[in-house]
């Protein structure tokens, strides 16, 4: 049998061990004890616990956070320098501004996504699982944003096939204007009255459009009506002089002035002239104004619709 002093020693040791185990608390229990504090004295007693938690957080995550912030700013700086380098390279090679803008946008977005993944990796986020999540999310987003992806693919097709370029005057989807930007998903154009129109690239690549700037010259067709009592040869000579005196008129092909219709109220004369595409609108307006003033001065009339009404009267019948 064990002696009494030995039993008392064992019991005392067991009590001390139990007391030590009760005195040791986990960080969660420490936070819980702070929340359970009911007086200022209790909070003062737990201030050292709060300080320990702050120090542990700073020691654990502080260096990673500092490195991540430095990496973020350094990466953005490198991306900016790379975009400038690519932009200068495109200018040296005389690359189409639409293509260079598209490439710069693509590089900027792709490198920023890569930079965010690197920063998350520095912070301790598992990039392998993150890549899997991004892949799954991309698949789901791809189904949900198929129209957006179609616009992206159409933008590439537009840049390759070049149905129009920056600065071209086009008509598409019921709008007429000058192309200002060819973006990743949309094409931006401004109308003649300075309205900004944004059209999805897929609509432009899959539907018909008119490019008024693709050819260097355009033909103007204007019909003028004169009265039946007017001299046709005199009208021809007046119109020919007006056209020939304008230096914007092309000599080849030469202007054509012919009668195209004998209407109910007028003899219709068609004037066809070729001009530079950039002079089309202004030339047509100037031609209409000059012809009106010259016809008035030469006594050539512009007839308007009219009808002759003949009244037949009968005398009183004999009674």
Could you characterize what this model shows?
- The protein is an alpha+beta fold and 319 residues long.
- The chain has 3 domains: 31-136, Helix Hairpins (Orthogonal Bundle), CATH 1.10.287; 150-211, SH3 type barrels, CATH 2.30.30.60; 217-298, Alpha-Beta Plaits, CATH 3.30.70.
- 57% of the residues lie in helices and 17% in strands.
- The strands form 2 sheets. It has a 5-stranded antiparallel beta sheet. Strands 6-8-7 form a 3-stranded antiparallel beta sheet, with helices on one face.
- The longest helix is centred in the first third of the chain and has 53 residues, at 40-92.
SSE arrangement:
Blueprint: H1 4-23, H2 27-35, H3 40-92, H4 97-122, H5 127-144, H6 146-161, E1 169-172, E2 175-182, E3 186-191, E4 196-200, H7 201-206, E5 209-211, E6 217-226, H8 232-245, E7 256-262, E8 267-276, H9 280-298
Antiparallel strand pairs: 1-2, 1-5, 2-3, 3-4, 6-8, 7-8
Biggest β-sheet: strands ordered side by side in the sheet: 4-3-2-1-5
Radius of gyration using CA atoms only? 43 Å
CATH fold description of the largest domain: Helix Hairpins
- Specify the helix fraction band: 55-70%
Distance between the termini: 171 Å
Overall geometric form: elongated
SSE order, one letter for each helix or strand = HHHHHHEEEEHEEHEEH
CATH class of the largest domain: Mainly Alpha
Q: How many helix segments? A: 9
Largest β sheet strand count, sense and barrel closure: 5 strands, antiparallel
Number of domains: 3
Structural class label = alpha+beta
CATH architecture of the largest domain: Orthogonal Bundle
Mean of pLDDT: 79
Q: Show unreliable segments.
A: 1-7, 17-22
Number of strands: 8
Beta-strand percentage range: 15-25%
């Amino acid at each position: 049998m064990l002696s009494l002093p030995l039993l008392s020693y064992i019991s005392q040791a067991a009590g001390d061990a139990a007391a030590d185990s009760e005195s040791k608390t986990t960080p969660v229990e420490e936070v819980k004890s702070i929340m359970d504090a009911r007086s200022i004295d209790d909070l003062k007693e737990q201030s050292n616990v709060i300080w320990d938690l702050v120090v542990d957080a700073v020691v654990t995550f502080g260096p990673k956070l500092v490195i991540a912030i430095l990496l973020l700013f350094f990466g953005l700086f490198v991306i900016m320098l790379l975009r400038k380098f690519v932009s200068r390279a495109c200018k040296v090679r005389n690359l189409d501004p639409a293509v260079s803008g598209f490439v710069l946008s693509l590089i900027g977005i792709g490198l920023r996504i890569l930079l965010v993944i690197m920063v998350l990796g520095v912070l301790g986020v598992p990039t392998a699982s993150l890549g899997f999540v991004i892949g799954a999310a991309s698949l789901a987003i791809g189904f949900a944003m198929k129209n957006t992806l179609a616009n992206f693919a159409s933008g590439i097709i537009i840049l390759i096939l070049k149905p129009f370029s920056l600065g071209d005057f086009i008509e598409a989807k019921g709008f007429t204007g000058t192309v200002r930007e060819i973006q990743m998903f949309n094409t931006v154009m401004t109308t003649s009255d300075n309205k900004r129109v944004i059209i999805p690239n897929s609509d432009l690549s899959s539907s018909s459009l008119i490019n008024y700037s693709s050819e260097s010259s355009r033909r103007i067709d204007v019909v003028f009506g004169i009265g039946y009592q007017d001299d046709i040869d005199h009208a021809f000579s007046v119109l020919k002089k007006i056209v020939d005196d304008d230096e914007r008129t092309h000599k080849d092909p030469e202007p054509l002035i012919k009668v195209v219709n004998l209407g109910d109220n007028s003899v219709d004369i068609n004037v066809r002239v070729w001009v530079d595409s950039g002079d089309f609108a202004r030339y047509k307006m100037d031609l209409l104004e000059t012809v009106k003033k010259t016809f008035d001065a030469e006594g050539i009339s512009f007839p308007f619709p009219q009808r002759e009404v003949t009244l037949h009267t009968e005398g009183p019948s004999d009674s």
